[in-house]
Fold these 2 entries.
Entry 1:
Amino acid sequence: MMESKKANVNLSEFGKIIFFTGAGMSAESGVPTYRGSGGIWHKYNWQEYACQTAFDKNPTKVLKFHELRRASVLKCNPHDGHNFIGELQKNHENVTIITQNIDGMHQRAGTKNVVELHGSLWRMRCDDCNVLIEDIGKKYQNINCDCGKYLRPDITWFGDNLKSSVFENASNIIKKCDIFISIGTSGAVWPAAGLPSEAKRNGAYCIEINPEPTDLSSIYDEVIDCKASEINQYLSFHT
Ligand code: OAD
């Protein structure tokens, strides 16, 4: 691994680019991370708010928690780092974002090709009826399915399996990528945490961007100690 603060990686030299993002990507927008200081799981016990058992026991309590998160995310805006990726996509034909974030911030920066590994705060679903509904706003527009059951947020909660089609899609894209740039993830949650190693095994050049070292830092070819909003100082696109 090469540690560097001065890397200037010209992304035009790479054919297929993946950005793999976590909560640190949105931290400077004002969306709290999960595990760092001020992290959501320090304030809220996920057993009460972020698992199917909690939802089955007290759906309105869980939905209110998610409405609080929706309201706080709607007050936030994408920053220079999100905008850099959105702009890059306009100039480079093969840029995919694989995100663990559920906040939709990449899409709000105009980014396309976003694979949402852990779902979205802005969708609701009923597993019995195979219903999936977009629902954007502070409050949920509808919390009941036509079958009478509560709709649940289309989010991967603790204890849930990732949607296999979504994970397979991410794995397939990773198999073909030339550069894999991870931004703002602790690498603590599996199976997402296995994706950087998969990229490495498949021969991609792997870069980690994070102001803190992580459990996965040693597998990257390059570690850039900077914030997500500063990536334009280290990554560029020029032909
Ligand atoms: P974590 O909260 O575990 O990690 C956030 C990472 O972002 C840490 O490594 C920080 O050092 C880094 N970070 C903080 N500020 C940053 C900044 N300004 N720029 C760049 N990096 C910064 O978040 P995730 O790794 O995304 O799952 O967590 C993975 C999953 O755990 C989440 O998707 C969520 C959670 O439980 C679900 O909700 C299913």
Entry 2:
Amino acid sequence: MAKILVTGAAGFIGSHTTDCLLGEGHAVVGVDNFRTGRKENLATALRSPAFALHVKDVAAPGVLAALVAAERPDAIIHLAALVSVQESIANPELNFSLNVQASQLVAEAARLHGVGRVVFASSAAIYGDAAERPIRESAEKRPVSPYGAAKLASEDLLLGHGACYGFTVRCQRYFNVFGTRQDPASPYSGVISIFARNYREGKPVTLFGDGRQTRDFIAVRDVARANALAATRPGLTSGAANICTGRATSLLDLAGIFAAAHPGVGAPVHRPARAGDILHSLGDPAAAAALGFTARTGVAEGLAELISEPPVPVLP
Ligand code: UD2
């Protein structure tokens, strides 16, 4: 059994990662400032004696180092972030603070207190408009947003510190993650969370463009398992891996699955393609497979679960 410190534990990916680690018998120290994370997401974890929650801001200097000094975790999974690409474009300074400086604070806490491993929430956004398909980890990195640039800078910061001070760093390059607890509130939220909410409420969805664009959608439960593995599997060395399925699903396919489950809802409304929208994004999962991770949940199965699950209730 290991003790894992999870930053952003109340977020979409953080809460599923926490649940996965607890389910595997590990102890979890969760940290979240509830900026975008929600206590509701931790309803299961909070019932576990192996879980402790600290409501703190890891981007504030000294906070994480003090917590790591007190808790002495075996590994840190750093998921706390500004998660919206659009928000990073609107507020690049905040993006720098939350998505670059906070990573430096994680590296520093690991160095000062001898943490053996750091797992970092990176993103396919570091590849930007890379022409290669499927995208391998070696593809040219051409981020096209402050968000993508910050994730790439953080990978380098953490890997460089790990190499110098002797801790392992695993950078997890998530593709399009979907599942329960994803916030559908903004028009720039993940398309599946928006579709799930609209269909549930009986409202037609919008398809930007002809709907033939494709993404590599990966279920959050698989992502959580990939994070737990990266944090706890003995013998891993530093590096980066795509966290993806290697399978492409079109928007039309998605809408078709939702429509079949909600026969009363009107047909999707077509709008012009979004400016800057990429047509196809597909990851190569081979590097993660070599480390022992393969996604298990298909899109249809993951969507069926999402459709049948009621929205997360609000805690008192
Ligand atoms: C991600 C980012 C986006 C941008 C892009 C750069 C998220 C949630 N989005 O977008 O901000 O940086 O990467 O490549 O991280 N769509 C619809 N109807 C909707 C919503 C979306 O048709 O109501 C389309 C959208 O135009 C796109 C596809 O669905 O073609 C997927 O959209 P997404 O925002 O979930 O993910 P992505 O990878 O395009």
